[in-house]
Fold this protein.
Amino acid sequence: MAAPAATAKPAVLDELQGKFGTGILATESPRDAIPTAWVGRDNLLLAMRYLKTEIARPYRMLYDLTAIDERVRAHRDGQPSADFTVACTLYSFDRNEYLRVKVPLAEDHASLDSLCSVWPNANWYEREVWDLFGIRFENHPFLERLIMPRSWQGHPLRKDHPARATEMGPFQLPEEKAEEEEERLRFRPEEWGLKRAAEDTDFLFLNIGPQHPGTHGVLRVVLQLDGEVILDAIPEIGYHHRGAEKMGERQSWHTYIPYTDRIDYLAGVQNNLAYLTAVETLAGIPVPPRAQVIRVMMAELFRIISHLVWYGTFAQDVGQMSPVFYMFNDRERAFGIVQAVTGARMHPSWFRIGGTAHDLPRGWDKMVREFLAWMPDRMREYDKIVMRNKIFKARTQGVGAITTEQAIDWGATGPMLRSTGLAWDFRKKLPYSGYENFEFDIPTATHGDCYDRAVVHVEEIRQSLRIIEQCVDNMPEGPYKSDHPLAQPPIKDRTMHDIETLINHFLGVSWGPVIPPGEALGAIEAPKGNNGYYLVSDGGTVSYRTRIRTPSFAHMQMLPDMTRNLMVPDLLAILGSIDFVLADIDR
Amino acid sequence: MNPTLLKIVVILVILLVVLNVSALLIWLERRLLALWQDRYGPNRVGPFGLLQVVADMIKIFFKEDWIPPFADKWVFVFAPAIIMITVLLTFAVIPFTPLFQITETNIALLFFLGMSSLGVYSIVLAAWASNNKYSLLGGMRAASQMLSYEVFMGLSMMGTVMLAGSFSLRRIVEAQQHIWFVIPQFLGFVLFLIAGIAETRRLPFDLPEAESELVAGFHSEYSGMKFGMFFVGEYLGVVLISALISVLFFGGWLGPVLPPVVWIVLKTLFFICFFILLRAAMPRPRFDQLMSWGWKWLLPLSLANLAITGAVVLARGR
C-alpha cells in the first residue's frame, strides 16, 4: 500500500457532502489515503444506511468499528474537537476501497446510535467499544461487556486506566469478594437472553468450554439444546485477552513487533507484515524489493503452516485421528526452514521496520526447494485420506453453510468469504508487499459450507507453494532493509566512521524511531482472513492507539447463525472449519 | 485329572490370558497407532515400552477413587462392573480350541447376544448415575446406537447358524471343515464386523464417548480403577468380537500345520489389529447418520442375507 499523494478529493466524500451537507463535519485524507469523513452522531445512522444501501457502488461491509480516546492527543489538525472518536471502517467491494467514518463524542455524552440495525456484525464491535472505552450505544440489543469480566471496574483502553498491574495497587481477594465473583459465574440463562423452556419442552443448557477438547483454546460456547438439536449457541470470548492493544500504547514502534506474532499465533510473521505495513505507511518508509520478496516468501510459508494446523485439527474435530500427525510432521519441515532463516519457529518476530532482521542464510534456496518438492505428493495423499473420505464429506457437506450475502454482512473475509463463491483476495485486490508481481489463483468454492471451506484452504496451500516457488526463482539482489532513517534497527555499517551516524544510531536504538503524527491502516490477507492494524501516531516513540482488526473475531461472531437447528457434532465441525485462533479473537 | 479341577484350570487360564491380553492391547494399540501415524508411541518403559502397561495399571490403581457428590453413588460404582462381568461371562462359550472351552452349550450365540444386550446397561447406567450433561448425551447415544445395531448383529449371524444347523459355537466351527463361512456368508461377515465395532464402541462408532464433542461421554466423571474397568472392558470387547469373528466366519481353531491354539490366536490378533487400524483411518459419522445408515441399509441387507441363505439351504434340501 504505497500511499499515493491524494490530490483529488475522493468521490465518496463529495457524494456524502452532497447528501448530508453540513451533517458531514469534516473530511480528512490520512496517510493511508483512506477517505475519511467526520459525521455528527445525529446523522450517523442515516449516513451509514445511505452508505450501505443507497449510494451507488455501496459500502456493503462493516470492516471494523473501534474508538480512540482523544483526550491527551496533541496532533489533531483539521479534526473536529472530541474527547472520544468512534471510528468505523467500511469496505466497498464495488469500489475496492475502504472508507473511514468517524464520530466525535464529548466525554459527558459518550453515546451514539447502535449500528446493529444496519450491520449485524456491529453487535460485538459495539460491545467491545462499550467494554473498553465506556461509550454507550443506544438501542443495542445486548450491551454487556464482551472482553473483560462483567465485574470489571473501569474501561481499560481509556487513557486514564492503568496499563500495568503495578499501577493498580496490590491485588486483594477477600473472602466476600471471592464468593461474589463465584456467584457471578453461576449460569443463569436469562442473563444470556435465553429462555429456560418452551411450551412443551424444557431446554437443556450445555456449557462447552472454556476447557473442552473441541474448542481449540479457551472459548466458551453456551448451547441451548432440545435433545441434541441446537436452538442457540452463544460464544463467550475474552478468556484469552491479554490487552495487546493497550500494550501497543506502551511499547515502542519497534519493540511491539514480537507482540504481533502472538495475535494469530499460528501465522507468525504474517502478523508482523500487517503491523509493519501500517507503520511503514505512516512513516513513508519504502521497503527494498529483496526485503519485499523475502517477506512474501516467509509470509506464504506461514500461511502453509497455519493451514496445515487447521487441516489436521479440522479432521480431528470430525473424529479422524491420524491426519493431524502427518500434517504436523510437514509443518515441522516448514519450521525447519523458518528456523534456518530466522532462528526461531512459531514466533520469529523477524520482520523489521523497513525490511527484515537479517538477510537470508546461505543455502536457503536448497531447503525451500526441497520443501516445494516434498509437499505436492503429501497434499495428494491428504486429498485421499481426508477430502475424499465419505464420512468426512457426510459430516461437512451442507453443514454450517453461509451465503456470500451473509458473509459480507458479518464482515467475513479470507477462506470464509471465498468458500461462498466470491473470489476476493486482498493480495490481488489491494496488493501489498509486491504481491502484484506474483502469479497465483484465488481458490473459491460454491456452497459456503464446512466442506467448501476445506476445499478453499487446501487449494490455498497449493497456491502458496506456487508463490514461494516464484520467490525462489526470482529472488532479487540488494539490501534486505531500507536505509530510511526510521528503519529499525538502523543499519550499522557507518556507525564507527562518523559521529553523526553514531549519534543517530544510538538514538534510534535507545528511543526507537519517532514516527510522524497521523493515522494509517495496514490490512493484509492473513491466513484466516483480513487482518488489519489501524495505528494512530501522535508523533512519539510509541503508538497513540493500536487497533488490531482480526478475522477470527468477525468469524466467531457468526457462530450462532451458522449452528442454529444443527446438532452438537455439527457445532464442532463448524468450529473446526472456521479456522480461528483464540488469541486472534481476544487479542 | 478330576474333571471339575480341569474346568477350574481352564477357567483360570482363559481368565488370565484374556485379561492380560486386553491390558497388553493398550500397549499394542498405542504402538500400532504410533507406527501408522509416523511417531514413536510409548517406548521408554521396559523393552519396546512393554512395561508401559504395568506403569499405566499402577497409575490407575493409585489414583484417587473419586465419586462425584452429585452422582447416584451405588449405581455409579456398580455400572463399570457390569461391562466387565458381561464380557467376561461371554468368554465362557467361546471355543478357543476343542479342549479350551469353558462350557459347551447349544445356545451359545443366544447367550452372547443376551450378554451383549446386558452390557448396554453398563453404559447407560454409568451415564445416568454420573448426573452430568455430557455423560447423559453420551448415554443416550449409546443406548440407541447399541440397541439398533444389536438388531442386525443378531440377524447377520443367523446365516452361519443356518449353514451349521446349530447355535453351538463348536458345531459352527466344525461345520467349517471344508469351507470357511466367510465365503458363503461374506455379506453376513461384513455386517457382523460393522455391528461388532458398534458393539465395542470403537471408532468410527465411538459416538458415546466422542472426545472432540462430549469430552469423554458416558465415562466423563469416572477416574481411577472404575475408569480402568471401562477402559479394559472396551479392550475385552475387542478381543471378544475378534474371537467371535474368527469362530463364526474364519474357521476358529481350524487350520493346517500349526496347532489349533496358534490358529485361533493368530486369527483373533489379526482382527484386533484391524480394529486398531480402523481407529487410525476413519472419521466419526454423526449420530443421526449412524442411525439412518443402520436402519435403512444394514438392517434390510441383513434381512436379505437371511432370506437368501434360507432359500439356498432349503433348496439344497437340508
